[in-house]
Amino acid sequence: MTVHLPAVPGYEGAAALLDTAGLAVGDLVHVVEYVTAGALDDYASVSAAREGFLGGHAVPVATVAVAGLLGPGPYAVELTAFPGGGDLVVAHPDAGFHRGSLRVAGEVVYLPGIQPCDADGLVHAGDFRAQYRYCLDRAAELLKAAGLGPGALVRTVDYTATATRAEYPRCGRPRRELLGGTGADGLPVFPGAAGILVDRPVLAGAMASLDALGSTAPPRTVNPGWSRYETLTYRPGVAAGDTLFMSGFGALDPATQEAVFDGDLAAQAAFVYAGIAAVLAEAGLRGADVVRLVEYVTPAGVAAYPDLAALRTRHFGRAPVSAVVCSALLRPEFLIEVVPMAVRP
Q: Which residues of the chain have pLDDT under 70?
């Protein structure tokens, strides 16, 4: 059974949490590093702490630039574990185990974070859509090593430069051309998606980077009747095997496509959680089936964020939560975006 642990400060905190959960480093299938500007300035120390913690265990790592943390320290670490560690697939040996490999465990395919760079450095400087396409192509190469096509992608979280907000719709074309698995009904199933804005990227000059998950099981669209998704290149939910991979949820009315509750974090969160509940219900699941929540909060929402704890517990029980501060979200009215995952019991 896959275990999702919430983000905690540093690799020392991650090691302690892993031990408390009765798991070993060899069980890890994915690592996410949420790094602030301070950690990026001293990323060699983060890398050294990671290597000391992993002790040679090859696991895909996604490094995510954030504006801040809702806890101490310059970076936080989120772990996903599966007893035995699943199966390792090395796709690009020259990229190193953490950047060029993936792990397959319980029908889920865990990819490393993808940056728009090759052996010579940054590619397609200044071209947002070309960098975005490059990241999708790179994901396809990784999946191919596992015997899968790009249609196996079930969720993408992209981190794009804040300055590209107006250009963001341009990523729709490469998504439409490169993504979309085939469901049991023969219709295309685009993956879930979330879009987060960053002022300072992990890779200098990067306008887009990607964190993605795939599945070895056939995908199925989960949509509680929201017609807006008929023209989009992502879906509110994708069920594959026993797992429901969901998009990022913001306070956007699915009928009018208007942002709601401008400036009110609690009201936005209540709206977001209700939307997640609707997708869960469509899949025959409940809030208690949520196994992972990542909450991206804008700087304007940080002060009120602690007040969401009781509301979140009512909806999702004790689901592991990783909360970080992002530079901004795609709709300037949004104070929070939530990316959930659920598993059928």
A: 95, 97, 184-185
Q: How far apart are CA 227 and CA 283, in angstroms?
A: 17
What's residue 183's pLDDT? 72
- Predicted confidence at residue 184, as pLDDT, reads 66
Tokens at residue 334, please? Answer: 């949004």
pTM beyond 0.90: the answer is yes
Question: What are the pLDDT digits (tens) for 272-325?
Answer: 999 999 999 999 999 999 999 999 999 999 999 999 999 999 999 999 999 999
C-alpha distance from residue 203 to each of 64, 77, 115, 207, 268 (Å): 10, 19, 7, 9, 32
**156 pairs with which residues across the strands?**
193, 212
How many whole angstroms separate alpha carbon 287 and alpha carbon 311? Answer: 12
pLDDT per residue over 45-92, tens digit each? 999 999 999 999 999 999 999 999 999 999 999 999 999 999 999 988
Q: What is d(CA 222, CA 241) in angstroms, rounded to the nearest whole number?
A: 13
3-state helix, strand, coil in the chain (%, to 5): 35, 30, 35
Cβ burial 184-216 (10 Å sphere, 16+ → b, else e): eeeebbbbbbbbbbbebbbbeebbbbbbbbbbb
Strands 61-65 vs 28-35: parallel, antiparallel or unpaired: parallel
How many other C-beta atoms are found inside a 10 Å radius of the C-beta of residue 329? 25
Would you say 201 and 209 are in contact if contact means Cβ atoms under 8 Å apart? yes
Q: Is 261 left (phi over 0), alpha (psi -120 to 50) or beta?
A: left
> DSSP class of residue 259?
B
Spatial distance between the Cα atoms of 273 and 287, rounded to a whole number of angstroms: 9
Structural element, H or E, at residue 68: strand 68-69
58 burial via Cβ count (<10 Å: 0-12, 13-18, 19+)? middle
What's the pLDDT at 232? Answer: 92
Which residue in 261, 84, 241, 247 sits closest to 158, CA to CA?
247
